[in-house]
User: What shape does this take?
Amino acid sequence: MRRDRLRTAQTRDGRKVAVWQLVGCSARVLRVQLTSESFAAYCLPSRAPLTDAQPGTVIFDPYPDLAAARELLPKHSDLWDALRDDYWAALMNSKILPDSSEA
Assistant: This one.
């Protein structure tokens, strides 16, 4: 298993999911899926519509760290808290996992 693989974090009820990656010592958020929402998917921070993506999807470009993602979507603190917990668990285990330059 590689250190820089894609990871997911979700809220306890499973209605919010974030796809993220451990890059160095930082959690970079690629996208968020709000499964109970039906808004048209879009890209942040540009708010450009993503017509081919599933409704309720937010894709980040560029990929923000956890703190910046929390600022961009502040109403989803439950998701960010879950991601933070997963991030710390991944970071603590990262010493035994190779990064992309070693794999």
